[in-house]
Design brief:
It contains nine helices and no strands. By secondary structure, the chain is an all-alpha fold.
Length: about 200
């Protein structure tokens, strides 16, 4: 029971704290509301656990054998996030122009593979919450299930914050400042990954 509570706490801390996923969800909800962002949130909720399972069951071996592959994925993820930060920062306030559609289910699920924070979580959770010598599949499935259950409520909270910001920041100047703040936080979330 202690193991499960610790894992839930870890999943909550990593899912609820600012990172690329929650910042994109908040920024999208500020632009278009919560309902259109639901496929994006479901893509994250199912995409990260799927990625975790694939890595835990062996795909992570090439990254250990070929460190350049890990670095290439990291560079691709950072480039993608910088582009997204620019799109968030330059998004027009509602009414000025049609906002860009949020990332859909498949896009959000695929994004986990280039999301530096997702990789950091996978690389932290594997040694911390698995026991060597015991079958990896049941352990990995438990971890993936916990993340799937914890992730969606965290994302809904950030989407609600984004939507609330849209109402509070109703005029163009304040909403533009919010977008720039979200973009800046997204860029700052990259700092631990740039070494």
């Amino acid at each position: 029971m202690e193991y499960l509570l610790t894992l839930i706490g870890f999943a909550f801390a990593t899912s609820a704290t600012p990172g690329p996923n929650v910042l994109m969800v908040a920024a999208s909800a500020a632009q278009v509301g919560i309902r259109p962002v639901l496929p994006h949130m479901l893509g994250i909720t199912l995409g990260f656990p799927a990625m975790f399972l694939v890595v835990a069951l062996g795909l992570g071996m090439p990254f250990e054998s070929y460190p350049w592959l890990h670095r290439a994925m990291q560079v691709a993820g950072i480039g993608w996030l910088l582009w997204l930060a620019w799109k968030i920062a330059s998004a027009p306030p509602p009414g000025e122009a049609k906002p860009a559609p949020p990332l859909g289910f498949l896009g959000a699920a695929a994004f986990q593979w280039v999301n530096p924070k997702a990789w950091m979580i996978v690389l932290a959770v594997l040694p911390a919450f698995t026991t060597p010598g015991e079958p990896i599949l049941p352990q990995a499935m438990t971890i993936a299930a916990v993340f799937a259950v914890v992730c969606l409520p965290c994302l809904l909270f950030w989407a609600w914050l984004g939507q609330a910001a849209r109402r509070v920041l109703g005029d163009g100047i304040r909403l533009r400042a919010f977008n720039w703040s979200m973009a800046a936080l997204l860029v700052l979330s990259l700092v631990p990954m740039v070494r």
